[in-house]
Amino acid sequence: MIVIRPLNKRGKNDALRMGKLLQKEKLIPDGILSSTAMRASATAESVVKACGYKGEVTLKRSLYAAGPEKYLQLLRGIPNGYMRVLVVGHNPSVEELVELLTSEIHLLPTCSLAHLNLQIGSNEIHNLRIFSFISFFIGVVDLFLV
Fold first, then answer.
1. Rounded to two decimals, what is the model's pTM?
2. What number is the average pLDDT over the span 110-135?
3. Which CATH fold would you assign to the domain 9-145?
4. Are strands 113-118 and 139-145 parallel, antiparallel or unpaired?
5. CA 121 – CA 75 distance, rounded (Å)
6. Tens of pLDDT, residues 74-86
7. Which residues sit opposite 88 in a β-bridge?
């Protein structure tokens, strides 16, 4: 069951701050993948406005209450030319995804940003077939903000 909770004032301000930060750090994504949950999609919308992203936001209902394997499965469907993808999702799955990809544990409070610098190419992530068994180090978190 999807719980409908709107983004509060602090959440809106945080999302705008994250969008401005993405622009400042030259981290504007090539694609955005977001849960359809009200707060996640509103966060993605605010980030888009603040960072100057010009593409479409791909909304996926399946991210709500999904495990990290589902996130990886959806990331595998991102076009090969994309070098940077922003994922707007839910915990604990996003924290688990970061740990799965980096072997690092990070607590990600509401509207935080972890920039993963993966040491693999987009073709390699597309070639990964059994995501639930990925437990090796393939990246590092090189920017973490709350």
1. 0.80
2. 58
3. Rossmann fold (3.40.50)
4. antiparallel
5. 13
6. 988 888 778 888 9
7. 34
